[in-house]
Design goal:
The protein is mostly beta strands. Helices cover about 5% and strands about 55% of the residues.
């Protein structure tokens, strides 16, 4: 139907174009004419009404009458409009009837306009789908896949019937189940489908219930089909079982398909292996189907290349011959299949291959593969640009006896000046293999000593020195922490190297590599300099071993003060001294635990941290030092007083009379000393008696108590004065 409609529209358009050409032969209105030059506009060959049938199209021309009495075709210049687009649509005079009813079509050109009424009716009362012999069909029809089914579309008008099958528009609701063209239905698969036909705005449909005429389909063989790559094909036979009974061999008539043709192909039931893998073969016939699984395995258990590592080449370098070997049994020799394999390069611009011969053409990368009897192996090839020179990334290397390691990178300078890594293309040699041997991209230390390794890339060479040492165990130092005044320096700590064999190497300072955790401390000519206050880390490294030190950078101390400034202690007693430092900016800090103490007489006084301990009676000076600033604390160690006694406990005197009292001190319950002159003497009643240095003088009658005090102890003497 659509093709017929398209043809009709083309005819209408052609007629309109011819009409326009005829009218254009008439005198035309100048392009710049004003609106008042148009007297009227009208429809060509049509009055004020027009009748159409649903589905019809008609091209209408519009003529403008000019003030000079001439006419002009303005069909494509005028403005067209419809009052009801759902009934009649209009496009540059082309009317299309869509539904029954009416619509007013207006054409306007310049200031003139014209309207006509278009009435649309159905040309036919109804249409009906019938069988090929014209018999009306029920709403649904039961049919079988593969049957021939022809349908007609009959149009009815006022009791008359017309066969419009060829002009109708036919459609299927599911073309996978059934297809239709000009009433001929192709029944493809079981299922339900609706066949529809439309003509002149009228339509009808019929539902088809499609079933298979067969119960099932079977394949022979129907079990797993196994191939080795290169095997001959296997012929499958397809047998259909009729629903009414009986069998039918349908191998040649069935539809055959492989789920993966890259693994196995099928044609007319003949299955052939195409590649390694697993796939499913499906046969289908009139709505029934059957499948069988196919597996294709390589003809050989293994395929390998003579090169098991990536290749690195230079443009124009000698081609590299690769060989391919196939094997099935570990107890049997490999088969050289180089000439039988299929060789490919993933990118022939940089690398080509023929018969396993690999040629480097230009800088780039490619993968070379060899395929044989279902197996594929490959190797990556890198072609470096041509280089003007090469250099090794390290000038020297350290190694340990019996050690091994990766060879250093080789950097090449291309003709454009670009630096690239060409390590893969480097060929290494050792000047003394008794010290260092080079093999398989690694170095192996064989003995103590020094030698040179040479890298060659094409015609360019570069060297690196390698020294083989005894293997170290650790770095040691007596120092754990360093203190530096900001802006000043201190010597670096002494470090020794302990080897695994137990030997100690002391003179290693020139070989140490020093690093810092912050740029606020610097290592300069064997000394450590502090720049900004803070806590940092200094690290010494040598032969892979490291040793770290804590570093405190402080402000400069300008004064130290000790509290107390002097101490008196008994033997065995201790006392803590607080040392306060004053910075340049006037701020203070407690340095008690940081200062370095020395004793002028350790047999009398010792000091640990900030604690002073009296050892024996005597005198000593303790000196605290920090940042070269010193403070001295005097210490007296005296025996401990354990007792105090007077020579008399009471006296009786006459006025004017005197009496002498001797005071004895007992120290540590063993030694004694006359302390009469050292004691403090007092009288409770000086009108009765007075005392001086142990001598008591009576004044007038009465009683008094004389007291003597020494070292925290006191004794009393009772004095009575009589007439």
């Amino acid at each position: 139907m659509r093709s017929h409609q398209t043809t009709g529209l083309m005819v209408i358009r052609l007629v309109a174009a011819i009409t326009a050409l005829i009218l254009l032969a008439l005198p035309a209105m100048p392009a710049g004419a004003a609106d008042e030059s148009v007297r009227a506009v009208r429809f060509a060959d049509i009055d004020n009404t027009l009748s159409m049938h649903v589905g019809d199209s008609r091209q209408i021309s519009a003529l403008a009458e000019m003030s000079d009495g001439t006419y002009r075709d303005v069909t494509f210049d005028a403005v067209w409009s419809t009052s009801n687009g759902s009934v009649v649509s209009v496009d540059k005079g082309l009317l299309t009837a869509k539904a029954s009813g009416y619509a007013d079509i207006t054409v306007k050109y310049a200031s003139a306009s014209k309207t006509m009424r278009v009435t649309v009716t159905h040309e036919f009362d109804k249409v009906e789908i019938a069988s090929s012999d014209g018999t009306p069909l029920a709403a649904s029809l039961d049919v079988l896949v593969g049957e021939d089914l022809g349908l007609k579309l009959l149009a009815y008008k006022d009791g008359s019937t017309s066969d419009v099958t060829g002009d109708a528009e036919w459609s299927s609701s599911n073309e996978a189940v059934a297809r239709v063209e000009a009433g001929k239905v192709e029944l493809l698969a079981p299922g339900s489908v609706t066949i529809s036909a439309r003509y002149k705005g009228r339509s009808d449909s019929v539902k088809l219930n499609i079933a298979s005429p067969y119960e099932s389909l079977s394949l022979t063989p129907n079990e797993l089909i196994e191939f080795r790559y290169g095997d001959a094909g296997v012929q499958l036979e397809a047998t259909a079982v009729r629903k009414g009974g009986g069998f039918e061999l349908v191998t040649e008539k069935a539809g055959w398909k492989s789920a993966d043709p890259s693994v196995a192909t099928v044609e007319g039931g003949l299955v052939k292996p195409a590649g390694v893998g697993t796939t499913t073969i499906r046969a289908e016939y009139f709505g029934v189907h059957a499948t069988v699984t196919v597996v294709v395995r390589p003809a050989y258990a293994a395929l390998r290349l003579s090169a098991d590592k990536p290749l690195y080449l230079l443009p124009g370098s000698d081609p590299v011959q690769l060989r391919a070997f196939a094997a099935n049994d570990p107890d049997e020799p490999e088969i050289d299949v180089t000439d039988l394999a299929e060789w490919k390069s993933s990118d022939v611009y940089p690398v080509t291959v023929s018969g396993g011969l690999v040629s480097a053409k230009e800088a780039g990368k490619a993968r070379i593969t060899a395929s044989y009897m279902g197996r594929t192996v490959g190797v990556d090839v890198t072609v470096y640009p041509r280089v003007r020179s090469i250099e090794v990334e390290r000038e020297a290397m350290d190694a340990f006896e019996d050690g091994e390691g990766a060879l250093p990178k080789v950097i090449g300078e291309t003709l454009t000046g670009e630096k690239i890594d060409v390590s893969g293309a480097a060929e290494w040699t050792s000047a003394n293999e008794a010290i260092v041997e080079v093999r398989d991209g690694k170095w192996f230390a064989r003995g103590l000593g020094e030698t040179v390794l040479t890298a060659r890339v094409g015609t360019r060479t570069a060297t690196v020195k390698i020294v083989v040492h005894e293997e170290p165990l650790a770095l040691l130092s007596d120092v754990e922490e360093l203190t530096v005044v900001a802006g000043k320096t201190v010597p670096l700590p002494d470090v020794t190297l302990v080897l695994k064999n137990g030997n100690i190497v002391e003179d290693i300072e020139p070989k140490l590599e020093w690093t810092t955790s912050s740029p606020n401390i610097l290592v300069v000519r064997g000394e450590l300099k502090g720049l900004l206050t803070g806590r940092y880390t200094l690290t010494a490294s040598h032969l892979g071993k490291k040793l770290s030190f804590r570093v405190n950078v402080e402000q400069e101390i300008v004064k130290l003060e000790a509290n107390p400034a002097s101490i008196e202690l008994n033997p065995g007693k201790s006392k803590t001294i607080r040392v306060t430092g004053t910075y340049k900016n006037g701020k203070t800090v407690n340095l008690s635990s940081k200062v370095a103490w020395t004793s002028s007489n350790p047999s009398v006084v010792t000091v640990s941290g900030s604690k002073v301990k009296a050892v024996a009676a005597g005198q000593a000076a303790l000196t605290a030092e920090y940042q070269d600033i010193k403070v001295v604390v005097q210490v007296s160690v005296v025996p401990k007083l354990t007792g105090l006694s007077a020579s008399v406990k009471k006296l009786e005197l006459k006025p004017g009379g005197t009496g002498a009292v001797r005071l004895t001190a007992v120290f540590d319950k063993s030694s004694q000393s006359d302390v009469t002159a050292l004691a403090a003497w007092t009288s409770s009643n000086e009108r009765v008696a007075v005392v001086s240095a142990g001598t008591i003088t009576a004044r007038e009658p009465g009683t008094a108590t004389i007291k003597a005090s020494y070292g925290g102890k006191t004794v009393s003497i009772r004095v009575k004065v009589t007439k």
